[in-house]
Amino acid sequence: MGGEILDIKIRQLFSGQETFCLPPKQSGQYLRMFPNAPTQNGLVVCRVPEEYKVSGQAGSIKIDGTIIEHPNGYSWFILVSKKWHYTKAFAGIAKSVQEAKKQIQKLFLQINPN
Questions:
Q1: Cβ(39)–Cβ(31) under 8 Å?
Q2: Where are the alpha helices (DSSP H) in the chain?
Q3: What does the alpha-carbon distance between residue 27 and residue 30 come to, in Å, rounded to a whole number?
Q4: 4, 12, 55, 114: which has the fewest Cβ within 10 Å?
């Protein structure tokens, strides 16, 4: 085992352009803390962060996880599993989605060396 090429697929779930309004009670609470928050008809408008689904497989090893936007870049969380052997969780922070993908590939090579 080892040496298989991991093909990581990244599918965008949310583009970061979607918005929603908080309900009245939560809007009031939020506006007390952040009075300059954007509003629409008195309700606080929130933006959904960019989010990506990560999946990949090499031999019997599978990777599933998420990359999500946050104020300092993108955080990623993945589960790595090998059937009948283990499931492990890993996480990291990257400046871009592509950098997160590179970090995940590097991690995979450490788990599954040639």
A1: yes
A2: 24-33, 97-111
A3: 5
A4: 114
